[in-house]
Amino acid sequence: MYIGNFRWRIVLLLFLVTTINYIDRNVLSFAMLDDTFRKEMLGVPLTYTLTQTDLDTFKIEYGWIDTAFKTAYALGFIMIGWLIDRLGTKRGLAFAIGLWSFAGVANAFVSSFQGLWATRFALGIGEAGNFPSSIKSIAEWFPKKERAFATGLFNAGTNVGIILTAALVPWMTLHYGWRMSFMTTGVLGFVVLLIWWINYQRPEQHPKVSEEELLYIQQDRQQEEISGRLTWWRLLRYRQTWALIVGKFMADPIWWFYLTWLPDFFNSSESLTQRLDLQNIGLPFMVIYLISDGGSVFFGWLSSQFMKGGWDLNRARKTTMLICALCVVPIFLAAQTQNIYLATVLIAIAAAAHLGWSANVYTFASDMFPKSAVAMVTGIGGFSGAVGGALLAAFAGPIRVKFGYMPLFLIASFTYLVALLIINVLIPKMKPVEM
């Protein structure tokens, strides 16, 4: 019996929102390679020649700006998850898109690290709304057996956003200046806000969803209402919440590290014999994030296929996460090789594995909690991931300046295996909470 497939159009809509989300947050990673941007932030004349000491100072300050963004991102999860569960997915995400787009445009008007700190802080608050809203949407629109695949599909928008940023922002910066890069990408957010507002509804309210598809979506529907007040403190009583916290706190900082520091790695790594600048840095990023896009979709699909093949939720999710964790281990070699092509491939495999890990960890909220708690639980996970990212960001600049990239890539290599071990101790068997 044909049941309809309108739910996959919702994934496409979430994919678009996530793509713009990642474009807005990644412009800075490429703008930092522009000499004019560096000089304006350091407050020196444009005719001044930057010394190595100036560049080291810039990288340390950049690390603190990145820390401010991630701190705001963490605080945003505290508010946004709660807000989305009360306002609903449509209005909650619309508010978040509007805020991050305004902050993205404001980035074009700063002239100092202090101004950049303020705009990136506001950007972090707004961008925190994307994933709680998207995960709640997936819980509303998909049965459990399709959620990891659906999550992997929309989560692939993260890489498309980075690919588009790598392809367009360096060119735009070289030809029109770094301010125009921020302005253009920020305006894109307001366009996607309009698209979101016009197209999104819950499945039971959407006129294009057939009765057969609605019954399919709700086949394993969890309890919609929870008795008693839903709070963070109540959710923190459950081991399932802490499993999500560990999965995000330990893995998200590695992804943030890739987004923030890979342009600098290819531009100034001491190990590589070939270094890249704004004119040619886009190509390795296209390779890395095209491959990692495939990882997001593949590992989400793999987990769903395991379940369709008869595996239970626990075995399907954890087996997939173990494969992802093992794929990240060789990345420490990227800090040792002189070959830029080998470094690119190692980083691409690790990035693909991270997105596969992320697609499965994100489903923890909808796998084990009632739908009415999904956004708040995802917010808790996102908060913990952002806190971990902020902690690593605070140390990444000094570590990179003093010791190079080797310690940072070593941290990335083994973090996922340790995280999976802790998750398995917390929840030996994945099962829904009783609330």
Can you describe what's shown?
With 435 residues, the protein is mostly helical. The chain has one domain (7-209, 230-426): MFS general substrate transporter like domains (Growth Hormone, Chain: A, Up-down Bundle). 76% of the residues lie in helices and 0% in strands. The protein is built from 17 helices and no strands. It has helices spanning 7-31, 35-42, 52-87, 89-106, 113-127, 130-141, 144-155, 157-176, 178-199, 211-217, 232-235, 239-268, 282-308, 313-328, 340-368, 374-403, 406-426. The radius of gyration is 21 Å and the shape is globular.
Task: Report a brief summary of the structure.
The protein has 435 residues and is an all-alpha fold.
List strands and helices in order, with pairings.
Layout: H1 7-31, H2 35-42, H3 52-87, H4 89-106, H5 113-127, H6 130-141, H7 144-155, H8 157-176, H9 178-199, H10 211-217, H11 232-235, H12 239-268, H13 282-308, H14 313-328, H15 340-368, H16 374-403, H17 406-426
Helix pairs in contact: 1-4, 1-6, 1-7, 1-8, 1-9, 1-12, 3-4, 3-5, 3-16, 4-5, 4-6, 4-9, 6-7, 6-15, 6-16, 7-13, 7-15, 8-9, 8-13, 12-15, 12-16, 12-17, 13-14, 13-15, 14-15, 14-17
CATH homologous superfamily annotation: MFS general substrate transporter like domains
Proportion in helices: over 70%
Global shape = globular
Order of helices and strands: HHHHHHHHHHHHHHHHH
Indicate the proportion of strand residues.
Answer: under 5%
CATH architecture title: Up-down Bundle
Number of domain units: 1
What would the CATH topology be? Growth Hormone, Chain: A
Poorly predicted parts: none
Total of helices: 17
Q: How many distinct beta strands?
A: 0
Distance linking N and C termini: 35 Å
- Rounded mean pLDDT is 84
What gyration radius follows from the Cα positions, in whole Å? 21 Å
State the major sheet: none
